[in-house]
Design goal:
By secondary structure, the protein is mainly β. The protein has one helix and 16 strands. Strand 14 (about 185-195) and strand 15 form a beta hairpin. The longest helix is centred in the first third of the chain and has 24 residues, at about 5-25. The radius of gyration is 28 Å and the shape is elongated.
């Protein structure tokens, strides 16, 4: 077998192995519309890299077919797709594949991964009314959700001495209220929120309710000059 045929055969074997290995390893990768994700391979001396995106792989040979994903669906941030590490912006829900080709002087090696892009993920904002109370009074915590009903969220309650978590489930409205009457200043944080499309483990939402102590009684003395 001459050198050219050997290199071509080697490329085919590498492509097949890469497709199988990476497909299995990345089958569960998910992001939400509007998010970015970092993709990378280990930099090898002398290698150059080319990344490509696909929104459809039906009937095509990934080893030879250029990327076919429109920029409106997904794109490389700042147009950079020739480094060992890239960042992809996902704009439209769907299933995508990405390919990286490592090019050296002897052969081209490729790896392929799969990415599932879900509709806009669940999130929540919180507000207190009022944000400061006296002991014995009540404040109302209002949570406003974005995403697709129903919602489930985990609320952390931290008064500085103890920290507990409560789960609220099957919320079918985009606004939810909770009456609060702690005896000390307390911080409320949503640790995670789940809607019909998946779970957001990092919602950016926390509020602190300040609790003022009641005045203490003191004896009244007659003033004598």
């Amino acid at each position: 077998m001459n050198r050219l045929k050997y290199i071509l055969l080697l490329r085919v074997v590498i492509v097949i192995l890469s497709l199988l290995a990476v497909h299995n390893a990345t089958a569960q990768q998910t992001v939400y519309v509007g998010q970015t994700s970092s993709l990378g391979v280990v930099q090898q001396p002398g290698n150059t890299y080319l990344w490509e995106l696909y929104d459809s792989v039906d009937g095509i040979n990934l080893a030879t077919t250029p990327g076919n994903c429109p920029l409106t669906k997904a794109n490389f941030v700042n147009g950079i797709n020739d480094s060992n590490e890239v960042v992809v912006q996902w704009n439209v829900a769907g299933t995508y594949f990405y390919k990286v080709t490592a090019i050296d002087t002897c052969a081209n090696n490729i790896k392929v991964g799969k990415m599932t892009v879900l509709p806009t993920g669940a999130d929540v904002s919180m507000s207190l009314a009022p944000a400061s109370i006296c002991v014995g009074d009540t404040s109302i915590l209002t949570l406003t959700f974005t995403g697709t009903q129903p919602f489930t969220f985990k609320l952390q309650i931290d008064d500085g001495a103890t920290q507990i978590e409560q789960i609220y489930s099957n919320i079918t409205t985009n606004t939810y209220t909770i009456d609060l009457n702690p005896t000390t200043t307390t911080t409320y944080t949503v640790l995670e929120i789940t809607d019909a499309n998946g779970t957001n483990l990092n919602p950016a939402s926390a509020v602190t309710l300040t609790v003022q102590p009641n005045p203490t009684n003191s004896p009244i003395y007659k003033y004598t000059p």
